[in-house]
Here is the input.
Amino acid sequence: MFTLLTKIAIGVYLSITPLHQVSPDPDETTQIVIHEIGSADIDRSLIEEYEVFITDDNQLFVKMNCSNETEITILDSQNRILVSESITTSTYIPIPSQRGTCFIIISSSQYYGYGTFYNN
Here is the structure.
């Protein structure tokens, strides 16, 4: 259980670099924290990669590589669904641009957890 948090998201703090720029704007940072709240018997390869990108036109994307079919739901701070889709491979999921907190729910038969965007 702790290995998953260590490997994937111990309070992963990323500096967001716009896809078409060389250096990041220091004000464009997003903190991602994934908290595991599901089964201790986890498929360690379920989420292989987890990255966030912001484009030049300020669109926020989360990129996930999954080895199994995984349901991704993104909620705003009022628990309204922003994005909900099932993914099986590397996927870029657009996130409606907003300030504040978004919650990412990752679920499958083996894993249920959530993450938080602190989108500055």
